Amino acid sequence: MKTAFRLASLRAKYKWSLFDEKTVIEYAKKCTSCRNCERNCPQN
């Protein structure tokens, strides 16, 4: 559940609709913190 919630948060924050589920999941696995996501987000 925690992972699902985290993915939902990422999708909402970065509008992951352009990415398929597998890409989102693989990216989330590499993410260690929200700041790290912001810095490395492919949308930035």
UniProtKB/TrEMBL annotation:
Residue span(s) of domain 4Fe-4S ferredoxin-type: 21-44
InterPro entries the UniProt entry points to: 4Fe4S_Fe-S-bd (IPR017896), 4Fe4S_Fe_S_CS (IPR017900)
SUPFAM superfamilies, per the entry: alpha-helical ferredoxin (SSF46548)
A Pfam family that the UniProt record links to this protein: Fer4_8
Domain of life: Archaea
Alphabetized GO MF terms: oxidoreductase activity
Name the record gives this protein: 4Fe-4S ferredoxin-type domain-containing protein
Organism listed in the record: Ignisphaera aggregans
Species lineage: Archaea, Thermoproteota, Thermoprotei, Desulfurococcales, Desulfurococcaceae
